[in-house]
């Protein structure tokens, strides 16, 4: 920044503070930029552009491989990062960035070491929204190895994820996150905040060769956009004629879009027919934002009413009666127009149709408008990261990025549902049965407030069962066939569980009565094969409960007193004390328990088969319950 620039910043700061307008120093200091050379272990400066390329960072896994660039558009880098299936199906970069509006750009490549020389197919998401699908054959067209999207990032970090489609290893050569002005590419109102603008085409009409903004006299705040020639866009038999000027253009390069001057210094015009058409292949039934750039650079057109034309999109009128000189007031002055169109077919054909004089166009940009997808509730994301850690999830399961977004790529073993009131995804079920997990269950699960089913069976999980106590949505809990130890928490008995499987663990102690009674309420329960566990429905607990001990002690003491004291008075007292226990002596403990166990099991079986039927004859058995 030169001295006048600095003076301007100071002046602007003073003026803004006087008038109470928030002054954003950041926009005067230059854009925030991150350029990552994927797979590289060193920082470097590119000779041609002077850009700083950071060594690889912020990634969730993967490996590095040499990059053999044959693409003319790609930056000259030596490495790439690729993600094998053992790294998980979803891998991400998490790069911290200040809140703002960004252009996020990738170059994809592949080689012998990472993909055996075969082109991989995969998908890319930004902030949980799917933005790019690499189509078969992408690597044979230079511009298809390049992808760019514009979006606002407000959560402090750019989350860029690569989703395997089962065809080769996702591989990426470079990732650039380049700040734009907040209101760049403003489509009107606040439309930009809730969408991602995916760049489909950016063309400098009449240009002799493709190039980055940096090569055509700079566009610091424009994200160093790449401008392609228009040669491959012409509808066959309809090629235009290029015109150029060296004259200076006025009114170009203004914030927020800061277009480079060069795009206005060339144009494509057509003399022989009255119509010039470009065709871009698109996804049907999507909205596209079309940006058109004009400046009158033809020496013969010096005033209004000499060149007038309409612009059509797939035959529908987009702009009527454009007279560049009339709109901006003079030749060699830039004009930008934008409009959003819904496209139903797989082609978007933009036609310039002459009304007066020949048509001409200087540059054209087409963006796909992708509505931002919903993300998962923050609390859920943090809880699952914690759970990933405590369960010691292997990296092949992934669990990177957003658990539920994009919806086509939820985390392995995680089922999601949408909460329309909160406008966010939540996790409804986790199923990690038989995944070789060796960690602990942990105590973060209650943060998954809406979890309905959890299946962690057939693993090697150790430690105690944490409190699932207030997970009121939980209806199915399967922790069977693990190495869990400790007590069964009584709070499980408060839940409205349909299924509770704790069998084949090392749980011990007494099964709490509330849990033991769950089958009566219709719960399918299995607590067998826990060597240390006793209680209702299993084997008797070896130590007698306190009440029984007390009664026995009392009767023994009373007996002793009688023996010593004797007499009729004493005989009467003995009857009074022992009467409540007569029943027990008449019916031995063992027999009482057997009856009880059989009846509870009967009840369970009956309940399993006929949920609506009440438990049979439970109260008749109750008096024999020694607990
Ligand atoms: C690259 O980094 C160096 C040192 O951090 C800095 O001095 C230089 O201005 C940077 N260059 C660019 C183009 O950002
Ligand atoms: C890079 O690719 C080109 C063309 O496929 C090949 O001729 C060259 O040997 C490769 N270089 C390396 C270092 O692999
Ligand atoms: C992403 O990066 C931000 C900022 O560095 C950090 O606060 C956050 O924890 C990271 N998120 C994940 C999921 O790693
Ligand atoms: C793009 O078009 C919209 C709607 O017509 C308009 O509000 C907005 O100002 C235009 N943007 C620019 C940068 O001209
Ligand atoms: C396209 O835009 C229209 C009008 O804004 C909207 O109703 C429609 O949902 C959009 N379509 C897509 C696929 O985003
Ligand atoms: C799309 O445009 C291409 C090239 O002009 C043409 O070959 C193709 O038939 C068009 N497809 C449709 C569906 O209009
Ligand atoms: C649920 O239980 C956990 C730990 O037992 C506790 O931290 C949390 O506040 C409880 N939540 C509710 C809603 O009671
Ligand atoms: C847990 O997963 C295993 C394997 O898919 C299945 O056999 C078992 O029935 C599941 N448990 C529950 C309670 O659904
Ligand atoms: C309970 O688990 C045990 C041990 O795995 C098994 O043998 C038994 O069949 C299970 N009971 C029911 C009712 O599924």
TrEMBL record:
Lineage: Eukaryota, Viridiplantae, Streptophyta, Embryophyta, Bryophyta
Residues covered by the Malectin-like domain: 36-369
Gene3D superfamilies: Galactose-binding lectin, Ribonuclease Inhibitor
Main location: membrane
Signal peptide: 1-20
Regions crossing the membrane: 550-571
Topological type in the membrane: Single-pass membrane protein
Subcellular location: Membrane
Organism: Physcomitrium patens
Pfam families from the UniProt entry: LRR_4, Malectin_like
Protein name, per record: Malectin-like domain-containing protein
Keywords: Leucine-rich repeat, Membrane, Repeat, Signal, Transmembrane, Transmembrane helix
């Amino acid at each position: 920044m030169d001295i006048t620039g600095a003076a301007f910043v100071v002046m602007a700061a003073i003026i803004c503070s006087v008038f109470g307008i928030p002054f954003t120093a950041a926009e005067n200091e230059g854009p925030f930029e991150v350029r990552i050379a994927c797979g590289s272990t060193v920082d470097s400066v590119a000779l041609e552009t002077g850009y700083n390329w950071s060594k690889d960072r912020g990634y969730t896994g993967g490996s590095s491989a040499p990059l053999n660039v044959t693409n003319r558009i790609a930056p000259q880098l030596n490495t790439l990062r690729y993600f094998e299936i053992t790294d998980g199906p979803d891998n991400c970069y998490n790069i911290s960035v200040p809140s703002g509006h960004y252009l996020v750009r990738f170059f994809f490549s592949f080689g012998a070491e990472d993909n055996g020389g075969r082109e991989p197919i995969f998908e890319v998401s930004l902030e949980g929204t799917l933005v790019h699908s690499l189509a078969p054959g992408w690597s044979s067209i230079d511009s298809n190895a390049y992808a760019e999207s514009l979006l606002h990032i407000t959560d402090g970090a750019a989350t860029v994820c690569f989703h395997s489609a089962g065809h080769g290893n996702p591989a990426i050569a470079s990732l650039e996150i380049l700040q734009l002005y907040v209101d760049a590419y403003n489509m009107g109102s606040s439309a930009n905040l809730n969408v991602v603008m995916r760049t489909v085409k950016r063309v400098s009409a009449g240009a002799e060769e493709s190039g980055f903004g940096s090569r055509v006299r700079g566009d610091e705040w424009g994200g160093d956009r790449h401008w392609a020639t228009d040669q491959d866009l012409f509808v066959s038999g309809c090629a235009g004629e290029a015109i150029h000027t060296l004259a200076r253009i006025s009114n170009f390069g203004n914030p927020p879009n800061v277009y480079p001057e060069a795009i206005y210094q060339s144009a494509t015009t057509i003399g022989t027919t009255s119509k010039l058409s470009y065709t871009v292949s698109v996804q049907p039934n999507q909205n596209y934002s079309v940006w058109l750039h004009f400046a009158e650079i033809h020496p013969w057109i010096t005033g209004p009413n000499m060149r007038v034309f309409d612009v059509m999109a797939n035959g529908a009128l987009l702009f009527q009666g454009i007279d560049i000189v009339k709109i901006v007031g003079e030749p060699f002055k830039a004009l930008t127009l934008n409009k959003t169109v819904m496209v139903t077919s797989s082609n978007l054909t933009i036609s310039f149709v002459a009304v007066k004089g020949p048509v001409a166009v200087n540059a054209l940009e087409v963006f796909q408008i992708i509505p931002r997808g919903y993300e998962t509730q923050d609390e859920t994301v943090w809880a699952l990261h914690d759970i990933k850690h405590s369960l010691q999830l292997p990296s092949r399961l992934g669990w990177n990025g957003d658990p539920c977004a994009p919806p086509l790529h939820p985390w392995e073993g995680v089922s999601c549902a949408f909460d329309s009131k909160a406008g966010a995804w939540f996790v409804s079920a986790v199923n990690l049965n038989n995944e070789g997990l060796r960690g602990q269950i942990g105590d973060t699960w209650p943060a998954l407030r809406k979890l309905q089913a959890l299946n962690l069976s057939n693993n090697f999980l150790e430690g105690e069962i944490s409190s699932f106590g207030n997970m009121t949505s939980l209806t199915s809990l399967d922790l069977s066939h693990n190495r869990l130890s400790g007590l069964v928490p009584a709070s499980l008995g408060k839940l409205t569980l349909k299924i509770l499987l704790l069998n084949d663990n090392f749980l011990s102690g007494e099964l709490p009565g509330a849990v033991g009674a769950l089958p009566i309420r219709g719960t399918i329960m299995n607590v067998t094969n826990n060597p240390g566990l006793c209680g209702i429905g299993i084997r008797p607990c070896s130590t007698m409960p306190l009440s029984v001990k007390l009664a026995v002690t009392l009767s023994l003491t009373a007996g002793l007193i009688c023996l010593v004291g004797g007499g009729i008075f004493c005989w009467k007292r003995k009857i009074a004390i022992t009467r409540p226990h007569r029943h027990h002596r008449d019916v031995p403990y063992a027999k009482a328990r057997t009856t009880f166990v059989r009846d509870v099991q009967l009840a369970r079986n009956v309940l399993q088969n006929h949920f609506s039927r009440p438990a049979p004859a439970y109260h008749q058995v109750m008096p024999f319950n020694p607990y």
